[in-house]
Amino acid sequence: MTSSSTVPVDRLEASVYEFPTDAPESDGTLEWDSTTMILVKAFAGDRVGVGYTYAGPAVASVVTGKLSQTVQGQDALSPTASWALMQHQVRNLGKPGLVAEAISAADIALWDLYARLVDLPVSVALGAVHEGVPVYGSGGFTSYVDRQLSDQLEGWVDAGIPRVKMKVGRNPDEDQHRVAVARGAIGEDTELFVDANGAYSRKQALWWANWYAQHDIRWFEEPVSSDDLEGLRLLRDAGPGGLDIAAGEYGYHLPYFHQMLDAGAVDCLQADPTRCLGFSGLLRVAALCDARTMDLSLHCAPQASAHVGAAVWHLRHLEYFHDHVRIEGMVFDGVLDPQPGGLLQPDRSRPGLGLEVREADIEKYRSG
Known about the structure:
- A hairpin with a 2-residue loop joins strand 2 (about 30-45) and strand 3 (about 45-55).
- It is globular and about 60 Å long.
- The longest helix is centred in the first third of the chain and has 24 residues, at about 95-120.
- The two termini are about 35 Å apart.
- The chain has helices spanning about 60-70, 80-90, 95-120, 120-125, 145-160, 170-185, 200-215, 230-240, 255-260, 280-290, 300-310, 320-330, 360, and strands at about 10-25, 30-45, 45-55, 135-140, 165, 190-195, 215-220, 245, 270, 295-300, 315-320, 330-335, 345, 355.
- About 40% of the residues lie in helices and about 25% in strands.
């Protein structure tokens, strides 16, 4: 492929897959028994790029309708130009939410397509500054009995991951016991994080912040709703030293992240490339953090997030989430596994994301 070549995008396709969980799951504010993946393919020349998001089935219609029409004929060697065009064309659809998730999956597919065309791994194509991305094992659902909780968290530690996260807040009266179970499973040398998914009130969260800090917990995610910027700022300012307040996984576009940062609401920002307008959007969120010398933590979708995470200057870590780890292992060949020390390291010998879809294996989960 010469630098003067232009390769027109032919089309985008999208498929919907629904995967049952391996056990009932819940966090502080939600219960679920299945996870839906929207798998997007971008076609140009003799290459196919793959992207995805975890969202509702309506995302697929946005991809195959407005977004496919928008990028058709655009240069596959300029994925950011297609990304910018998609921003403009969805004005009347309402960008935050499903539309942003559709753009995210399309953008990831277009970057995978570009990287395959130029025979580079996506991490390098995006401008890698790290060879590997630190991960933390994530699960610890509030629906788990003690044995499930301890087995899962201990499994992350046995896999060489030195930090793990559990859910809290659904039944606060049980949280002290559950933290004790978790600590007993992982030992004193493994970092323990908690995520309330916005379940606590402000005063509840402040009390718990002090209790968690006393028990050597250094990461308190969404202690109150991520929409409550004043509440997050209260926790950040009045909470104990050494306990970082984190939020941002529900951000869909740059204004959201700008407002959260401008409010001083978090010690460490989170963003999800399958929600925040893809790799192109995530790198712009990272720039907001770079300007403040603030760390960015990536939320979920580890097989995609590992590549863009390698290109984030002020990177803290990546959430290695149980459901997504399980699903991505079912959907793709070529998945990355954590290396000793808990690093997810993109394979620089494989172009694109290095993933191939296991079409026949996942057909039974297809719902659209």
